[in-house]
Amino acid sequence: MARTTPDGDFDGPPKAPGADEGEAGARLALLLALLAAFTLLTFLAVSSGSPSDVRQRPRMLTTLATATGPFTGAIARGGQSCCLEFSLRLAAWLAPILAAGILASLAIPGNDPGARALRLGCWTLGWFLWLAGGPVSFLHALN
């Protein structure tokens, strides 16, 4: 059913529950800000150390793969079995957290500011923890 103003004027099509025009943009902006920060951290991590160590690392590939979260450490070491095993164990914990954050951000109903803040908080926390898996994986890969 179409929405109307108190005067009876047409106010556009009905909105889906919990929909907000700016929320999708806010999610994208939060994700891009997190990616930018963790990409910088990744670049700094793979660029530090002795010159011979730095030359052996795929710096550009590792930096571009920041979105892979806990797998960036394994990528930095060329997929060595011990680093990949550590990344897989870390991902086993972080992937469900990311999925829960994304699903919660889609499932929480309501148009009020509290519901919107909760949706964005779940989204941000899920992605933050997933991306933080990159620096944690470096603790194993770059030691």
Write the layout of secondary structure elements.
Layout: H1 23-47, H2 51-56, H3 59-64, H4 72-76, H5 81-107, H6 113-141
Low-pLDDT stretches are none
- Multimeric status of the protein: single chain
Number of strands: 0
Q: Calculate Rg over CA atoms.
A: 20 Å
Instruction: Kindly estimate the percentage of residues that lie in beta strands according to DSSP.
Output: under 5%
Largest sheet descriptor: none
In N-to-C order, the SSE pattern is: HHHHHH
Which shape, going by the Cα principal axes? Answer: elongated
Mean pLDDT, as a whole number? 86
Count structural domains.
1
- Secondary-structure class: mainly alpha
Note the gap between the termini. Answer: 62 Å
Number of helices: 6
* Helix coverage percent: 55-70%
Question: Any key phrases for this structure?
Answer:
143 residues, 6 helices, mainly alpha
What report would you give on this structure?
- With 143 residues, the chain is mainly alpha-helical.
- It has one domain (23-141).
- It has six helices and no strands.
- The protein has helices spanning 23-47, 51-56, 59-64, 72-76, 81-107, 113-141.
- The longest helix has 29 residues, at 113-141.
- It is elongated.
